[in-house]
Write a structure and sequence with these properties.
The complex is a heterodimer of chains A (about 70) and B (about 230).
Chain A (H helix, E strand, L loop, with lengths): L6 E2 L4 H4 L20 E12 L8 E12 L1
Antiparallel strand pairs in A: 2-3
Chain B lengths: L1 H4 L7 H7 L31 H7 L1 H26 L1 E6 L13 E6 L13 E5 L7 E8 L4 E3 L11 E3 L4 E5 L9 H4 L2 E2 L3 E10 L3 E4 L5 E2 L9
Antiparallel strand pairs in B: 1-2, 2-9, 3-4, 3-9, 4-7, 5-6, 7-8, 9-10
The chains are: A mainly beta (about 70), B alpha+beta (about 230).
GO cellular component, one term (chain A): mitochondrial inner membrane peptidase complex
InterPro entries (chain A): Mitochondr_Som1 (IPR024645)
EC number (chain B): 3.4.21.-
Chain lengths: ~70, ~230
Amino acid sequence: MAPLVETFHPARLGQHVQYLTNGKIRKPPVDLKQCELKELIQYECDLRGPKEDPRSKIVCEPVLRLFRN
Amino acid sequence: MIRGRCLFRLPSIERVSLRTRLTKPIRRASTQPKPQPTTTTTTTYPKPRSLTRYLRTSPRLSLTYSFTKYFLASALLLHIFFEYFYVLELAWGISMLPTIASANDWVLISKLYRRGRNLHVGDVVSFKHPDKMGEYAVKRIVGMPGDFVVEGTPGKGGSGRMLQVPMGHCWVIGDNLTWSRDSRTFGALPLALVTGKVVRVFSFRQGWRKLNHGLQPAYAESDALD
């Protein structure tokens, strides 16, 4: 069973980043815009066409995930 | 006779005693009689024979013994190799499309990364499923302990809220976001359940191929995200 965690709106990410997991203030403070931007591509794949038809194809559309590192 | 039907004929005591070498010279009987002990009673036990002595006398037993010895040693070595170094497993399911095919793809798992050792965001890991007992799953790590991640699928409705991955846990998502049951379903995954990292994928049609790490420097402009 995963532990219960608090969720927050992405607009408040800048405030939450300033705290460590144990509740203490992070030193030095973090500026997200100064962190390196990275990306990870994942996909949304689905079957195009009827399931029984052998000519049906799986089509994957990319989904971009962005990270601050 | 029962002895005749035995699989391994054990040597009789008489035969063994005949083969023993004499360590002391035979003492000839002297003219004067030896003084006999008066009233002491002694108990004699049969001399214990070692295993090697049995094996020397029976070639069939020796063959069985050496076969068992090498079989156990090789089984132990294989167990250590598969449990602590590398293992090749057949993967099935559509949750990691198109990185890993839905069938007939084998994944080479490095056990050097078990329990979350030296793992990073973007690595594809194998782990014991937290909800289904006895089942294993393969997903990609999106968040390590202390990282902030989106709770649902990015840009696809949902609450769109974020959370911080708790210590000792990681956030795993399948590459096929539509058909994957991952941390969006069962929450943060304990690192203790991670059994290894997928380093290679093998299929008979494409051969060996290296698994891409996934996380790369972004092409998007940083200013465009404001």
